[in-house]
Each structure stands twice: as structure tokens, then as C-alpha cells.
Amino acid sequence: QVQLAESGGGLVLAGGSLRLSCSVSARTLSDYTMGWWRQAPGKEREFVARINWSDGNTYASNFVKGRFAISRDNAKNTVYLQMNSLKPEDTAVYYCAARPVRSLNYNYWGQGTQVTVSS
Fold it and tell me: Which secondary structure element, helix H or strand E, spans residue 2, and what is its range?
């Protein structure tokens, strides 16, 4: 069983930065890949970035490359999403999720945190 809790969302001006945090509770963190997803109003949920807990390998969607960075802190059992150069189109609810490393499906989800970027 994995429990996830996001924090760090809020309202920011375009061009600004936010750092989202996801506190993770799991028996063996290295068994999981952690991801950030987002869902804007009226749109489907979309993948943002992911990190393998065991080796720190990361991957991000093209639309956030160079602006967002995913990382993890082993000591704090926390995954971060550093978001820079935010745009109004980044406005969404951001979700932390986890999947077993050998699975394609994210089985565990946090409650989400709202990010609003105003122009």
C-alpha cells in the first residue's frame, strides 16, 4: 500500500516558480516509480514527469522540459516538482502518483494540489 500527499500549490504570476512536494509512505520505496500528472479544467489528465525511486532516473514530457524538474529526497521520502517559467496554460490540479517499476499503470494517487498561473 502506498499513500501520497501533495502540497505546495497556489497562485503565481506568469513567469514565476512553485515547488510541489509529495510525501510518500510505502513499505519499499525502491519498488516504485513516482510520477506527476496534471488535469486542467475540461481536459484529460496528462503526464508531466516521472522518477525511478531506486536510481533517480527521470523523464519529462516535452511541454515541460527545460522548465520543470522532478527530484526525490530519500531521507524525507518526498518527491518534488520544481516548476519554473510558469505559464497560464500550466494552470491545473497536479497529482502525485506511484506505480510498481515493472508496471505501466499508476495505481496510487494523491488528492491533488491546485496550481493557478495568472497573466
Answer: none
SS (H, E, C) 47-68: EEEEEECCCCCEEECHHHCCCE
For 37-54, what is each residue's pLDDT tens digit? 999 999 999 999 999 999
**Mean per-residue pLDDT of the chain:** 96
**Secondary element (H or E) of residue 18:** strand 18-25
Instruction: Tell me the C-alpha distance between 6 and 27, whole Å.
Output: 19
- H/E element holding 7? strand 3-7
Residue 73 near residue 80, CB atoms below 8 Å: yes
Say how many C-beta atoms besides its own lie within 10 A of residue 39's C-beta: 14
C-alpha cell at 97: 502518483
